[in-house]
């Protein structure tokens, strides 16, 4: 999925914003969940993007860990960019290794898409609005007002992560997918 998104996402206007066919997504999700072989290259990239966001939303406790939710929410209120980067790196170190590996690939894809934002209309802000709710959610339900504030803070965090991913995850993030 990520490889396809890395290949096609940068040249696709509105990637992660437009939804894939709900019927196709449901059918493919059922096939994937049953372990059946699925060739996503034959599907719309919007279906792949929708399936990927659904996958992220189904990670127990979220990829950024709901246990660290308060720390993630407050990190953007702390100091200058260098301090934010250091605090983010400290939080990343507290995540399970599998989550960190997946995050590196996710932000490698988002970075690649952002680099061609003039073509695809998906700058870091737009990407964050679309993907942030799939990366972290509060551990308990909340009021609509506090949920709205939470979404703004997490979107700001994801935008910052996208814009600074090379400094946060390392320059090798640019070569994670090799020569596809």
TrEMBL record:
CDD domains found in the cross-reference section: RhoGAP_ARHGAP20 (cd04402)
PROSITE patterns linked to this entry: RHOGAP
Alphabetical list of InterPro entries matching this protein: ARHGAP20-like_RhoGAP (IPR047886), Rho_GTPase_activation_prot (IPR008936), RhoGAP_dom (IPR000198)
Residue span, Rho-GAP domain: 1-169
GO biological process: regulation of Rho protein signal transduction; signal transduction
GO molecular function, one term: GTPase activator activity
Keywords, in A-Z order: GTPase activation, Phosphoprotein
Protein name as it appears in the record: RHG20 protein
Organism whose genome encodes this protein: Jacana jacana
